[in-house]
Write a structure and sequence with these properties.
By secondary structure, the protein is of the alpha+beta class. The protein contains ten helices and four strands, in the order H-H-H-H-E-E-H-H-H-H-E-E-H-H.
Length: 432
């Protein structure tokens, strides 16, 4: 066989390989716009905000807390008491009777309980603190859900990217096998080269099974967060959110924003405010509540006299009240310590997440600007050298594995940066 006639064909396959290697630098996912649910994270967030049952539950609880404010500050219902006196009509000829006009005397008492001044206002303030706490819990539930969706989407993007990358490398290895077969037919290399190319493809196909399973798992996780069936379709992820500018991720500045916006901290501060009001209410219980009443008296069909009554409870159980006041004071201390602990945790977690995001960003930039171009150049050189018989197949395989590893590391760094950004936004309480 004329080997000179085979070499041009091999060169043509080599040009195809160079094109495939160049395509690897374009990125594993297309950036074309897509409208299907799942193509971008914002659509998933909008869907979750409207459909997630946990959020609906938290909103209903917050509404219930709001409706408790007015009753907390309202006076109790008045009480009407009717007393029938001398129902056996002793001293006159009439017999037993229960009609007010047919008994000896009927006394009516209309009573209204009046709490000691300030108690109603404190009860209203406690109820308002409960409302703020419920609203903060709702906001915290949303930030937690949003973080989980953003994290799951980043993992979904990573799984889809790894699958696509593996398929592209598999296609590349099929072309490598064809070159090896052509060179073997020309007697230029051993058959072992073609066999090793086939073994590499088999390993990739096995890995594709795991990658497809991982992608299905991430899709099921996203659907669960969206309150959809696990098998509901989701579009392929198209792009990740852009990262904030490095200068905007100062840990001290973010900690200040978190103190102002973090819903978990707002919930603890509302709990502290409610505990302080409850402590003041416990102290006000040292003073009696009053009950006032108006008492008309009926004899026959006429009102013959009027009376006024005042009633009060006597706070004699001082030991009980001191215990209640001590309990309220302890609850204030616990709420204050809890709020301080949450603030400290926020600062620590923010510092950790900012550092991790910065490391992931720098790693991705290093891979994109140095490692990836070097790996692509190495693969092109290996292909050209193998075509010319200046490099063995082992070195070509190593170059292919290196560019694949580099692309996977870049995808991993991108996904890690997105997950850290989601965590920072949860801690800050708003999107950056």
């Amino acid at each position: 066989m004329n080997t000179q006639r085979l070499l041009p064909g091999a060169r043509r396959w080599g040009s195809h390989l160079l094109l495939a290697a160049a395509l690897l630098g374009a990125g594993p996912l297309t950036t074309a716009a897509a409208t299907e649910l799942g193509s971008n994270v914002q659509d998933l967030l909008d869907q979750a905000r409207a459909q997630n049952p946990e959020l609906a539950l938290m909103r209903a609880e917050a509404e219930a807390a709001t409706q408790r404010v007015q009753p907390a500050a309202a006076l109790p219902d008045p009480v009407l008491r009717v007393e029938l006196m001398n129902v056996n009509n002793y001293g006159n000829e009439a017999g037993f009777n229960l009609l007010p006009s047919k008994v000896g005397e009927t006394k009516y008492t209309l009573m209204q309980m009046l709490p000691w001044p300030g108690k109603l206002g404190l009860r209203r303030d406690i109820a308002n603190a409960d409302v703020r706490q419920a609203q903060a819990r709702t906001a915290a539930a949303w930030t937690e859900l949003a973080m989980r969706i953003k994290t799951a989407y980043a993992r979904y993007y990573l799984a889809a990217g790894n699958e696509r990358l593996t398929r592209e490398i598999l296609d590349l290895m099929q072309r490598v096998e064809q070159i090896a077969q052509a060179r073997y037919a020309g007697g230029l290399v051993a058959q072992q080269d073609a066999i090793r190319a086939q073994l590499e493809q088999t390993a990739m196909r096995s890995e594709l099974i795991m990658l497809e399973s991982d992608k299905r798992q991430q899709r099921a996780r996203l659907n669960a967060l969206l309150a959809r069936d696990a098998g509901a379709p989701l579009a392929e992820p198209q792009a990740l959110r852009p990262l904030p500018a490095p200068g905007s991720l100062d840990a001290a500045m973010l900690a200040q924003r978190a103190r102002a916006n973090n819903p978990q901290l707002a919930s603890e501060e509302a709990r502290l405010a409610g505990a302080e009001k409850n402590r003041e209410l416990a102290r006000r219980n040292r003073y009696p509540d009053l009950t006032v009443g108006l008492q008309p008296t009926q004899m026959g069909s006429r009102i013959t006299s009027w009376g006024i009554m005042v009633e009060m409870n006597i706070p004699l159980q001082q030991t009980t009240r001191r215990s209640q006041e001590a309990e309220a004071e302890a609850m204030v201390g616990a709420a204050r310590a809890r709020a301080q602990n949450v603030a400290n945790q926020l600062a620590g977690e923010l510092g950790e997440s900012v550092a991790a995001l910065d490391a992931a960003r720098r790693s991705e930039v290093l891979i994109a600007t140095q490692s990836l171009p070097q790996s692509e150049l190495s693969l092109r050189s290996a292909i050209a050298a193998y075509e010319n018989g200046k490099l063995d197949f082992t070195a070509l395989l190593e170059a292919q594995r290196q560019i694949r590893k580099t692309r996977q590391e870049r995808l991993k760094a991108q996904a890690e940066a997105q997950m850290r950004l989601a965590e920072i936004e949860r801690l800050v309480g708003e999107e950056l």
